[in-house]
Amino acid sequence: MKLEEVTKRWYGDACGTALAMELVGERWALLIVRELMFGPRRFGELRAGLPGVSANVLTQRLTGLERAGIVARRQLPPPASVQAYALTPWGLESEAAIRALGRWAARSPQHDPTLPLSGASLMLSFRTMFSRERADGFVATIGFRFGADGFVGTIDGDWIHIRRDDPVSAEVVFDSDPMTMASIIYGGRPFADAEAAGQLRIAGNRALAERFVTLFLLPSKVVVE
Q: pLDDT tens, 175-203?
């Protein structure tokens, strides 16, 4: 489908918000951007992070995001040497808007942090709910291993920087799954409970692990009359 044919269905509104909805407002589009926020992903990896999307719809959305200049295809270096999808520099700029939208929506009484989520979703939530006040003076490198998916978070006392990477060199590594980590950080679940259930293993400095999970704060819920 040509770009001219797509734009015929657009709102015809000069507002930047209207254009944003055109670019990433279709079902699954914004979540695809979320999954790519920490580095390139192969098609199968995107489907694994978004288990509810069909291969056909994922193909359509990736095509649309490519056409819009938000996503580009990349050849991964050896030994992978396969095609993957990555956000363009402009696509990466959407993170601030996505974080603001997520924080706003989390104030809804309908927000349920116990629902399934991907590793990328959890990492983006860390960058959304990070409390600079609670992290004051805290410096650490925290690793996460979710099956084959690895992330490294570097906290510099003011912000948390996150990248996809093997967490082997981190000061502490959480070996778990995203839902379990969310239940600990946002639901107050004790480490011991998750460990006893076989859902969590902590390697490295446990004191850093205990401090890390206190650095995130969900916003207060809005009162709906």
A: 999 999 999 999 999 999 999 999 999 99
Residue-wise burial string across 86-112, b where 16 or more C-beta atoms lie within 10 A, e elsewhere: ebeeebeebbeebbeebeeebeeeeee
Q: Which amino acid is at 6?
A: V
**Per-residue model confidence as pLDDT tens digits over 159-174:** 999 999 999 999 999 9
Residue 211's H or E segment, with its range, is helix 206-212
Instruction: Answer whether 195's CB lies under 8 Å from 188's CB.
Output: no
If you search the block for the tokens 């906290």, which residue do you land on? 155
What pTM value is reported for the model? 0.89
Could you give the CA distance from residue 26 to residue 29 in angstroms, rounded to a whole number?
Answer: 6
User: In whole angstroms, what is the distance from residue 167 CA to residue 201 CA?
Assistant: 14
What residues are paired with 74 via a beta bridge?
84
* DSSP tag of 150: E
Beta bridge partners of 175: 145, 201
Q: Please state, in angstroms and as integers, the Cα–Cα distance from residue 112 to each residue in 3, 21, 28, 199, following that order.
A: 37, 24, 19, 20
72: part of which helix (H) or strand (E)?
strand 71-75
Give the phi and the psi of residue 20 in degrees, each rounded to 5.
-60, -40
> How many of the other CB atoms lie within 10 Å of CB of 52?
10
